[in-house]
């Protein structure tokens, strides 16, 4: 994925990626990334938790506007336990059960 | 193991490296799990055959006439196919 | 909750920026682990790519998304997930697709939560909502999807990475690209 990101940026289109593996992202030197300390397969949090999904997207788009140097990684200060706790009772409608 | 690493192992006749790669692939990154997975698909194939259900031998003959790449790919697909029908499916996060 | 940790609803302005206080990577040393198991499959780059700049407000920007989670339309042929060296192709997924139109066909990462809500891995519906709300300008007609597991960085670059980047440059008319691994 890092290869694609680098190639797209090199074509003049600003890019941002989401990562749960900060070490992998650091080594591929992608232009911008948001790091979420969450499990694989959960880059946008938990099912039906619309707020957290939107939050990750907004962080990413904000980073595209604000990053000043290539390779900037923004750490998302939300622990997995918090995501899990907040999403425990969410239904398909995104409401608390 | 990258493709070049595998090609080197093949050139060296290093079957241990090759089978380690296969175990890692079938075990989603765990050699131990991969070993068990290989056993599982053979167990499932044997269980299916024990009842002497009729077999479409024409289909098998036609299939075996296909090219080696298709057959080798089919071999990997059959491995997953046989396990997927069981309760022992560990992939896709259901482990 | 520690002082540095936010609940989801708090604004970013309140976020503590100290990464030492944020959550740690749940699987530390992933690069070394993968590289030990599959030598040569992981890439390392020494040079940074010069930043391209977003030349319009977000509310006017067109966004394209690329995912390695292996998502595709239920009507499309699944990608080959059993090949030991990986699958070197990709799919176009309409940006108008909804959860029920899509399926993740992959073996190498847990997608049981994404099966319940595709937006966990591929936030297509959230992006649609952000356009409706006027936060984003629009979405490219297609998004791009491929399988993250592959054992040949050179073949991957030639047959997946470059063709997707070319396709984005040629047909997506995007001002901004969001890349989401799995």
Give the SSE layout.
The complex is a heterotrimer of chains A (97), B (95) and C (182).
Chain A: H1 2-10, E1 15-19, H2 22-28, E2 32-35, H3 50-66, E3 72-75, H4 80-87
Parallel strand pairs in A: 1-2, 2-3
Chain B: H1 3-12, H2 15-26, H3 31-49, H4 57-64, H5 68-84
Chain C: H1 30-37, E1 62-67, E2 71-73, E3 91-94, E4 102-104, H2 112-116, H3 124-132, E5 138-139, E6 142-145, H4 153-172, E7 176-180
Parallel strand pairs in C: 1-5, 1-6, 1-7
Antiparallel strand pairs in C: 2-4, 3-6
Question: Could you please describe the fold and organization of this structure?
Answer:
- The complex is a heterotrimer of chains A (97), B (95) and C (182).
- Chain A is of the alpha/beta class and 97 residues long.
- Chain A has one domain.
- Chain A has helices at residues 2-10, 22-28, 50-66, 80-87, and strands spanning 15-19, 32-35, 72-75.
- A three-stranded parallel β-sheet of chain A has the order 1-2-3, sandwiched between helices.
- In chain A, helix 2 (22-28) links the parallel strand 1 (15-19) and strand 2.
- Chain A starts with a helix and ends in a 10-residue tail after the last helix.
- The model of chain A has no long low-confidence stretch (mean pLDDT 92).
- By secondary structure, chain B is mainly α.
- In chain B, helix 2 crosses helix 3 (31-49) and helix 3 (31-49) packs across helix 5.
- Chain B has helices at 3-12, 15-26, 31-49, 57-64, 68-84.
- Chain B is built from five helices and no strands.
- The model of chain B has no long low-confidence stretch (mean pLDDT 91).
- The radius of gyration of chain B is 16 Å and the shape is globular.
- By secondary structure, chain C is an alpha/beta fold.
- Chain C has a domain at 58-180.
- Chain C is 23% helix and 15% strand.
- In chain C, strands 1, 3, 5, 6 and 7 form a five-stranded mixed β-sheet that branches.
- The longest helix of chain C has 20 residues, at 153-172.
- Mean pLDDT of chain C is 86; it is low at 9-22.
- Chains in contact: A-C, B-C.
- At the A-C interface, helix 1, strand 1, helix 2, helix 3 and helix 4 of A face helix 1, helix 2, helix 3, helix 4 and strand 7 of C.
